[in-house]
């Protein structure tokens, strides 16, 4: 079971390069003034956010958000599926609107071995589904060269479309996204947020509370002295 944990954030002090922005949004329309860039502004415990285990690695992660019904919603497998379905229904007309990243949260997050193994598994799932189309095209080309029957060619054509495009590519995209998701965030409702609420393991939530208490106590003692 996960708990809501408020993490202090601040606006990023460094401007993003055009290349960094293109990594965080589709290369359709990049408007620097519309992108909200935040950074984690508090120390984090050395526990995995998701599993509450001792972290064996700290990883710099950029969490992307898109406009949603509840505010700036984190880009997730569910939001990716909704966006991909909507883009498919509108034949790509809505791509610029539903895929445009409007906010990003940068920070170094603690992860455990279990997180890294899960990321590896989902990454390979993405590789497999992404490779279905090129493999089918190769078999089709080889079959044409060897004079294969038209029935085999027709089956392989269905594998390529609509099997590989768009459905297999959607699954691959969702798997790649899941492999890079180590932290889950609640929607950002404020235009200038000072905190972002994440979903975390109870052990991580308790450690954050203890860390905040220790930091507040040390600050109070230094002020009294």
Radius of gyration: 22 Å
* Range of helix content: 40-55%
What is the CA-CA span between the terminal residues?
42 Å
Total strands: the figure is 7
Order of helices and strands: EHEEEHHEHHEEH
Supply the helix-strand structural class: alpha+beta
Number of helical runs? 6
Relative strand content: 15-25%
| Tally of discrete structural domains | 1
Uncertain runs are 23-32, 219-223
Spatial strand order of the main sheet = 4-3-5-2-1-7-6
Assembly state of the chains shown: single chain
Mean pLDDT: 83
Largest sheet: 7 strands, mixed
Shape: elongated
Features:
disordered C terminus, seven-stranded mixed beta sheet, single chain, elongated, alpha+beta, 225 residues
What does it look like?
The protein has helices at 18-24, 77-89, 95-98, 113-146, 150-179, 202-224, and strands at 3-11, 36-40, 57-68, 71-74, 103-111, 184-185, 195-200. It is of the alpha+beta class and 225 residues long. It has one domain (3-207). Helix 2 (77-89) crosses helix 5 and helix 4 packs antiparallel against helix 5 (150-179). The relative contact order is 0.20. The model is unreliable at 23-32 and 219-223 (pLDDT under 50).
Please give a quick description of this structure.
By secondary structure, this protein is of the alpha+beta class. The protein has one domain.
Strand and helix map with partners:
Layout: E1 3-11, H1 18-24, E2 36-40, E3 57-68, E4 71-74, H2 77-89, H3 95-98, E5 103-111, H4 113-146, H5 150-179, E6 184-185, E7 195-200, H6 202-224
Parallel strand pairs: 2-5
Antiparallel strand pairs: 1-2, 1-7, 3-4, 3-5, 6-7
Helix pairs in contact: 2-5, 4-5
């Amino acid at each position: 079971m996960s708990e809501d944990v408020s993490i202090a954030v601040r606006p990023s002090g460094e401007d993003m390069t055009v290349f960094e922005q293109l990594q965080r949004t589709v290369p359709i329309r990049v408007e620097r003034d519309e992108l909200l860039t935040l950074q984690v502004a508090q120390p984090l415990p050395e526990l995995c956010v998701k599993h509450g285990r001792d972290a064996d690695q700290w990883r710099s992660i950029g969490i992307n958000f898109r406009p949603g019904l509840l505010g700036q919603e984190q880009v997730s497998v569910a939001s990716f599926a909704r966006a991909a379905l909507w883009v498919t229904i509108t034949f790509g007309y809505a791509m610029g609107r539903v895929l445009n990243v409007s906010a990003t949260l940068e920070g170094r997050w603690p992860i455990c071995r279990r997180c890294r193994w899960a990321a590896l598994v989902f990454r390979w799932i993405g590789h497999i589904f992404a490779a279905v189309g090129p493999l089918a095209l190769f078999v089709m080309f080889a079959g044409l060269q060897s004079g294969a029957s038209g029935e085999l060619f027709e089956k392989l054509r269905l594998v390529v479309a609509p099997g590989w495009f768009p459905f297999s590519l959607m699954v691959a995209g969702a798997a790649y996204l899941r492999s890079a998701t180590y932290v889950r965030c609640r929607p950002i409702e404020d235009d200038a947020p000072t905190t972002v609420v994440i979903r975390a393991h109870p052990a991580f939530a308790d450690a954050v509370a203890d860390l905040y208490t220790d930091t507040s106590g040390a600050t109070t003692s230094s002020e009294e002295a």
